[in-house]
Specification:
Layout: E1 29-32, H1 34-40, H2 48-61, E2 65-69, H3 75-86, E3 95-101, H4 104-114, E4 119-127, H5 130-137, H6 141-161, E5 165-173, H7 180-194, E6 202-208, H8 215-228, E7 235-241, H9 248-257, E8 262-265, H10 279-287, H11 300-311, H12 332-348, H13 381-390, H14 398-415, H15 420-432, E9 438-447, E10 457-465, E11 468-476, H16 479-487, H17 491-494, E12 496-505, E13 514-522, E14 529-535, H18 538-558
Parallel strand pairs: 1-2, 1-8, 2-3, 3-4, 4-5, 5-6, 6-7, 7-8
Antiparallel strand pairs: 9-10, 10-11, 12-13, 13-14
Helix pairs in contact: 2-11, 4-6, 6-7, 8-9, 12-13, 13-14, 16-18
This protein binds acetyl coenzyme *A and 3-methyl-2-oxobutanoic acid.
């Protein structure tokens, strides 16, 4: 690959930069350009109904500034703005913005489209970059500056005839390819022409029209500009980053450190080529640092659905915060840590989110119903245990987690991803539904303790043993003891030791079933087997768990032996 074909863009010398020592402390003014830069980049631009739906979504999300289009460019763009105005769809606290090239006939037509609006941002642009001055405009620096001045003059003149407020926005388009001192000269000419003041601020938008360098270089350009305006107070510094090098979010975050007040971007980063900066990621990055993002992004799937419908674009599965796979862990160590982190979060009860591998609580985006953990051959026992716990309510004991995970891994190695339903079916098949050679039929547990004496229980357990129905009887000072002693009357059970026992309710409420887990070891063997029993009655659940363990011993140990 001939890398010598490319040259590095000249960077500016800013040795006393201050942005590296700053932190983002508040959300900027957000301006959505979905209906303009986003729309102009679509294979099939939005029709009017889709534009209205997108506009309403943006309003709902809390955008107070929305670039609704380029009304002088086509009838549909013009008609859309007219519809918003005539149907009174623009809330009082939302300012619409319209884009136009700094050209007379386009500016005039733009003003026609604004009639009836209370307030508007009129955004004019002309490219100022070294390359475009040369190959597109064939104009000198002075001539290019004059385009900006003439455009500003015309907007000023027309806005004086306009009943309501017009805010000027000016973009030295292709700013990242423009010498900063020349960009400043053009911007100052615009500001002077407009007679900008702290009371009559102008939005100076410094676009990374094409992302040409590392984010720190853009941050230097923005800091340089912020420091060199004659009067910083008469300027709202806006950035409009694109994503050509894949650094749009980083570029914008550094630009905010460097002094930008406002950000233009789109939902999910739709826009020309690699897209505009993704405002959702920016806002949620702030949110996850405890900063109010000033946008309502809590219904992520709904936002995604409307976006996909209107743009006919797809949100990729790894898109930050929104992608299908971003709250999913396949790998064992991640699953284990998420599992423990979620448990610790609920135990602490302090409401401060700190869970390994999950920078945000999925519930904050209303994504709690999606599986956080998915199981494939990279998964470990923690993930399987998490699914059994969170989806089906089984708190598997540690040794059982490892035992069951092996069964799931055998499946995933052949079939790939294993769904929660398949995991549950396998669990039932492996532990709960075993009925040979022993099968539970019924049980009776009688308290036979004398008054003030030790509590003694008599257990009568009717089972099928290799097809033969038997009633086993045992005594003990507790139910487990009595049941185990009843089973000891069969030879198989007699020579097993009860290693572990636990139980819990599966769901809340008096009708809830209990799950019991029993670990038995045949005497003289190293290997144990777990059994699981589920029943409304806890004693029956325990008996079924013992039978399950015996059936597994029979299947896995005795047969093997
Ligand atoms: C970076 C961005 O995203 S900027 C936004 C870009 N968006 C769009 O272009 C979408 C909508 N645009 C359009 O529909 C069309 O471009 C229109 C209707 C606005 C203008 O159409 P046309 O005049 O037919 O064509 P075009 O846009 O190619 O204009 C080219 C002419 O305008 C000049 N020009 C281009 N941009 C500007 C500008 N910002 N200010 C002044 N003149 C400009 C060019 O030098 C060229 O002049 P020439 O004809 O003397 O060579
Ligand atoms: C009009 C300008 C702001 C633009 O879209 C860009 O530079 O990308």
């Amino acid at each position: 690959m001939n890398y010598k074909k490319y040259k590095k863009f000249e960077t500016i010398k800013l040795t006393d930069r201050t942005w590296p020592d700053r932190e983002i402390e508040q959300a900027p003014v957000w301006c959505s350009v979905d209906l303009r830069d986003g729309n102009q980049a679509l294979i099939t631009p939005m029709d009017i109904d889709e534009k209205v739906e997108m506009f309403q979504l943006l309003v709902h999300l809390g955008f107070k500034e929305i670039e609704v289009g380029f009304p002088s460019s086509s009838q549909i763009e013009y008609d859309f703005l007219r519809l918003l105005i005539e149907k009174d769809l623009i809330p009082d606290d939302v300012t619409v913005q319209v884009l136009t090239q700094a050209r007379e006939h386009l500016i005039k037509r733009t003003f026609e489209s604004l009639k009836g609006l209370k307030r508007a941002i009129v955004h004019i642009y002309n490219s100022t970059s070294v390359l475009q001055r040369d190959v597109v405009f064939h104009k000198s620096k002075e001539e290019i500056k004059q385009i900006a001045i003439d455009g500003t003059k015309l907007v000023k003149e027309l806005s004086q005839e306009f009943d309501e407020e017009v805010i000027l926005e000016y973009s030295p388009e292709s700013f990242t390819g423009t010498e900063v001192d020349y960009a400043m000269e053009v911007c100052e000419a615009v500001l002077d022409t407009w007679e900008a003041s702290p009371e009559r601020k102008v939005i100076i938008n410094l676009p990374s029209t094409v992302e040409m360098d590392t984010p720190n270089v853009y941050a230097d350009q923005i800091e340089w500009m912020c420091r060199h305006f004659k009067d910083r107070d008469r300027v709202i510094v806006s950035v409009h980053p694109h994503n050509d090098r894949g650094c749009g979010v980083a570029t914008t975050e550094l630009a905010l450190l460097a002094g930008a007040d406002r950000v233009e971007g789109t939902l999910f980063g739709n826009g020309e080529r690699t897209g505009n900066v993704d405002i959702i990621t920016l806002a949620l990055n702030m949110f996850t640092h405890g900063i109010d993002p000033k946008l309502e992004l809590g219904q992520m799937n709904q936002i995604k659905n409307i976006y996909e419908k209107c743009t006919k674009m797809e949100v990729p599965p790894r898109q930050p915060y929104a992608g299908e796979l971003v709250f999913t862990a396949f790998s064992g160590s991640h699953q284990d840590a998420i599992n423990k982190g979620m448990y610790a979060y609920h135990q602490r009860g302090e409401g401060i989110w700190e869970v390994p591998y999950l920078p945000i609580d999925p519930a904050d985006l209303n994504r709690q119903y999606e599986p956080i953990v998915r199981i494939n051959s990279q998964s470990g026992k923690g993930g399987v245990a998490f699914v059994m716990d969170t989806v089906f309510g089984y708190h598997l004991p540690k040794a059982l987690q490892a035992d069951f995970a092996k069964a799931i891994q055998n499946i995933s190695e052949i079939e790939g991803e294993v769904s929660p339903e398949r995991i549950y079916d396998t669990f039932k098949k492996e532990y709960i539904d075993l009925e040979y050679p022993y099968k539970f039929i019924k049980q009776r547990l009688i308290d036979i303790s004398e008054e003030d004496g030790e509590h003694e229980r008599r257990a009568e357990v009717t089972i099928e043993d290799h097809g033969e129905v038997k009633t086993l009887v045992g005594y003990g000072n507790g139910p487990i003891d009595a049941v185990k002693n009843a089973f000891n009357s069969t030879e198989d059970f007699l020579y097993t030791d009860l290693i572990d026992y636990s139980e819990h309710a599966l769901t809340a409420g008096s009708n809830s079933k209990a799950a019991a887990y029993v670990q038995l070891r045949p005497q003289g063997e190293e290997k144990c087997e777990y059994g699981v029993g589920v029943h409304l009655n806890i004693t029956t659940a325990t008996i079924k768990a013992m039978i399950s363990a015996m059936n597994r011993i029979y299947k896995n140990i005795k047969k093997e032996g």
